[in-house]
Amino acid sequence: MSSVIRRDFLKTGGALIIGFSLRESLPAEDRGSVAGPPDAKQIDTWLAIHTDNTATVYIGFAELGQGNSTALLQVAAEELDLEMSQVRTVQLDTNVTPNQGGTYSSASIQRGGPQVRTAAAEARQALLQMASQKLEAPVEHLTVAKGVVSVAGSPDRSVTYGALVPDKPFHLAFTGTAPVKPPAEYKVVGARIPRNDIPDKVNGRYVYVQHVHLRGMLHGRVVRPRGQRAYGSGAKVGSLDESSIAEIPGARVVRRGDFVGVVAENEWDAVRAARQLKVTWDTAPTLPTQARLHEQMRAAKTTDRVVVQRGDVAGALAKAAHVVSESYRGPYQAHAPFGPNCAVAHVMPDRALVVCSTQDVYGTRNGLARLLDMPAEKIRVQYYEGSGTFGHSCYDDAAQAAALLSRLADKPVRLQFMRWDEHGWDNYGPAHVGEVQVASDAAGKIIAYQYEGWQHNWSAVETSAQLAGTPAADWPGGAAQQVSALNCGGMYDIANLRLVNHQLPGKDYLKGGWLRSPLDLSFSFASEQTIDALAYLAEIDPYQFRRQNITDARWLTVLDAVARSAKWTPRRAASQRSDGKVATGRGIGLGTHLVSYGAAVAEIEIHKETGRVVAKRLHGAVDAGLVVNPAFVENQISGQLVQTASRMFKEEVTFNTTNVTSLDWNSYPVLRFEECPEVTPIVVQRLNERSTGAGEEVMAAAAAAIANAFFDATGVRVREYPLTPSRVLAALSRAA
Fold this sequence. Notes:
Layout: H1 6-13, E1 47-49, E2 55-57, H2 68-80, E3 87-88, H3 107-135, E4 142-145, E5 148-151, E6 154-160, H4 161-164, H5 198-203, E7 218-223, E8 237-241, E9 252-256, E10 259-264, H6 267-276, E11 278-281, H7 293-299, E12 303-310, H8 313-319, E13 322-330, E14 342-347, E15 352-356, H9 361-372, E16 379-383, H10 395-409, E17 413-416, H11 419-424, E18 432-440, E19 446-456, H12 463-468, E20 497-504, H13 520-537, H14 542-548, H15 553-565, E21 577-578, E22 582-591, E23 597-607, E24 612-623, H16 630-649, E25 678-684, H17 699-714, H18 725-735
Parallel strand pairs: 2-3, 7-17, 15-16, 19-20, 24-25
Antiparallel strand pairs: 1-2, 4-5, 5-6, 7-10, 8-11, 9-10, 12-20, 13-18, 14-15, 14-17, 18-19, 21-22, 22-23, 23-24
Helix pairs in contact: 2-3, 9-10, 13-17, 16-17
């Protein structure tokens, strides 16, 4: 059977014609010169009041589908005494919106909420002072509803916000000293307000970055090996034959160092040119074999640091009634957005515009400034949503590639990655080796805990900059993720605890970057399985064992909430329930990402003849303090549970000694719709606690729950994930 290119099939079929085009007229093309960054110390940077009695709230966080562009408006509307129909926001833009830091580490509400809340409160205070003068009444006699300020007892004496500052600036410093509402008075915060971005997304009107066009732009593609080599090796051009694309009209090669790209007026011509261009690359082996990855990590010279040391772990281990010691391994995993990253750039001699999907417009701008050797204030970055990221994916690489192509071609360029670019050159969530020792006394009290972890530094220098010979500085995440008490024993009351971090240099491994709940899945996969094993050794139900070793009320609350949801019943040993071909099991786990509290229960099936594992039901509970919109957090929990199942059962970056080999959805499979578990999200609302993250705080718990459910079903502990059929069959065979 001959292969047929999809595009050629559509051209010759004649019966199917599909057309879709959105041409976005960008404000940047009409606003003149690049301005400086908004001054976060001014109220006018945060909001504006309009004549029609509405407000625009300027938000510095990216809408990634988590609903923060609605939730932060809820915070502002609450403090301003406006309805949701009276508030709106604008596109994220380094010339327009404040620098609130990146949209990662579940920070939008945790960091952004207090900033927006205090700015709105300060604006309201100023508006009341203006109204007091206008209405000739003291501030304490004024009431506000829907932006209308009235004198108490005299509703006819009123004035609107819009009449007080009709499209005029406040000219007030943002001091952060204005009093904010007590939670008991909240009407908008805590309500299930629908997301404001959903209608346009459902109706096909929403403009994603892939839809954005600039006048006179070219289309571009990068040309690089299909699959990255070791981070320190990059990719070296051996030879390049520009004549190999001579028959494609208007297509041309642009190059700087080992950065190679093609541009053309027609996108399909750019795709063809990138595919046909004859380039040879240095293919010397620089990676460990995948089979030896964890062995090499464990044996490598590392930078070691004792992260936590309290009590006498060795002494407690020596006198313990029960001791469990195990080693576990976690894989590289990819961000793998469904639509490859895209960016549009227009680099001019004295300024630049870059339109992209990013989690940090200001961080992206700084990287572009280094790459282009241009002052950051001369570069404008505008955000348009892409197709998902869940961490530091290739969005900065796409932005930098587009900027390089534009500078080299001296034209605006739209750059779209191909699937093999995205899968093959990602900043992968790093692999991990964890060794755990946990001990208890005869009554099941944990008396000693030790965790030693091996992983390499984040190394998310963008590929385009690296190949061009002018690598930007390392991504701000640096080597921040390391063994910590958050997921390594910290939820339990343990007198003797020791955590050791073994950091490997990143240059001999694949590029690493933040992935949703980075390394937390690996930490909890190891730690919570060992806790579970100790519970069974002590012949105590895993839920009850955890309960009796926790004194923190918030950990107990999420643990109890998820157990109630799953209708947990005690069991003391692996039940190994089976109908002969299918074994079923149930497990529980705790975990988090930063400061919130997460718990999960998993119910799974193991098909013993094929090795296939299926999550039937997942329950997840999160305590994230004050939850601005419970519906959004429920959505986040549901997404986390499904994504965790995908990462636990399917996802693993594959590679040989020369390059990454998982370049598509066949070689890097993800969970399919028919494999999705039934999910139950549980939000623990705490109005009087500060808001903390909710975007990745139950994934570690769910990973542990799945692993513990496997043991419950089979009596076998799995030491490495994902739980692929081959690993499952091997584990069952060893236990037979």
